[in-house]
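Researcher: We're reviewing a set of sequences before deciding which ones to prioritize for further study. For each one, I'd like a predicted 3D structure that I can look through quickly. This is S8 family serine peptidase. If possible, include the structure in token form so it fits the rest of the review sheet.
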Amino acid sequence: MRRFDRRPLRDRRLHGRALKSVGILAATLAAGQGSFAAKAQESFAEASRQIVPGAAPALATTPLRLVDPTRVLVTLRSGENRESLRIEAARRQRESAGGSLDAVVAAIEAGTGSSGRSLVVALPGSAREQNGRAAFPSVPAGAGDFVTNIAPEAAAIVTALRQMPQVASVEPNMMRFANQVANPADGFNALLGIDRPPPTDGIRSPSPDVGAIDAIIGSGRVGGPANIGTPPALSDDPLSQLQWQLLDNAPQAAADRLPGGTGFRTYRAAHRQTDTAGPIVAIIDTGLVASHQDLARNRILPGYDFISLDLVANDGDGRDSDPADPGDATTAGLCFTGSPATASTWHGSHVAGIAGAVEGDNRLGIGLPGVAVRIVPVRVLGRCGGFDTDIIDALRWAAGVSVAGVPSNPNPAKVINMSLGGPGACPAAYQAAVDDALAAGAVVVAAAGNSAEDARQSSPASCAGVITVAASDARGAISPYSNFGPRIDVLAPGGNTQRDDDRNGQPDGILSIVSGGYEFKEGTSMAAPLVSAVVATLVAARPAMTAEEARQALVATALSRSSEACPRGCGAGLVQVLPPVASAGRSLAGSAR
Ligand SMILES: [Ca+2]
Ligand SMILES: [Ca+2]
Ligand SMILES: [Ca+2]
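Model: Here's the predicted structure for S8 family serine peptidase, in token form for your review sheet.
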């Protein structure tokens, strides 16, 4: 999360680790993959003893909130709706002297995006964009009421709305961010040959990534001495050998298992022949690079682009039916004064690939985790992040709830993945949208956030009813960037690109698709979609499963963590997918037969 404050945090963390004589991690960034050979000289047991996730520094800086000065989120009390609010405002307008409430009535009448108890109200007096750059006030989190940072006439409307008995809350429309840690792995991605554009010939024909990976796996050229062993293939997909998160779980590392494994290897062995029409998983993110060769095109369903501001959208228009990801690169100063230039993340494609958007056993790239899910790409994040107003509409739409001004989703999702977030406890407007999605039958999975802080201070991770996922490394220990605490439901592999605990000479990031190839990333963003994949296996066995039943099944099969591996709380522990006959889902699966 917080794309813009990741870099200083990472720098501090690296510095702190270097002081703990794990200086090879700092060298990783400086020297590329060569430092991983040094890392490989530690035994796995030695590495496991160095679990110090609690050593991650607390955030020293106050994170910024980027607030849209032109819109607010109004959440009404139970039983109220926009019409009852409008009537109340009109009554107060008649009784007031001087027409001071005219603007309030007009704002309510023009309110959009209404769905039940939620309303988006436009505010006068400011712009979101000036001269092609964002013009958002940036407000330090916890700096008090946002109305002090918006135009006086807008603040007057907010104050008047808050006085209406129908109104439960008036909240700022904030920016949220992808929960991806700034990626240090780009240096060795060149080794994989993935900086090149994808080949355009047939999907099953030989492709550069196959040859590149042959040069890496098992050769010792990169990994140095003492590899644990070349893992047996998870599938026909050559890069699946780098998908350590899918290995089975065991206390001691071996060729086909890791302490950080989740059991998908065995699961897939039993489910290779069932790749037809799995559960529908919506990915609420940056969109999808639909031209990627490894995408399972017949399992990508129509999505939607919910980004309303073109500065964010980067596609020349507002909302539309095309969720393709045109990139989210920014120039310096685009998002706020002093914001750095950033490269495109292709975050949504990466997340979708982890959840199962790729083709399995096609002898290309990476493999599938569990069942062959169908993917609904829903675009909400672009340049600078994404607004609450767009994310909340997207969440409802993904679940099949109607959203004003948008055609209904013909393929309501059973699982909704949200690898995004921002500072602060769950806003009422988010909770209302989550409640609507749950009521529609969806299971909502959210990344816990990457601020190394209590997940109760991040949203939507902190919203009631979502499955909140912290990130772990190949040892099954919480990753140092991961949020933690009592709000976490389960831990899942999000990677740690500063470690090589599986001893293959590659950083232990999570490999997935990006524009032009594949990339290791790390973050709770990468952990959440693997939990979505686990939920998909549960839902495949029992389609009517509720979100709470899914959460209980995840908790029942998770492997509890020691206080050393997870000192500040990661819920039930490391998530596991188990074949239905052996899992806590057995009775659930059985009842569906
Ligand atoms: Ca658009
Ligand atoms: Ca593949
Ligand atoms: Ca590795």
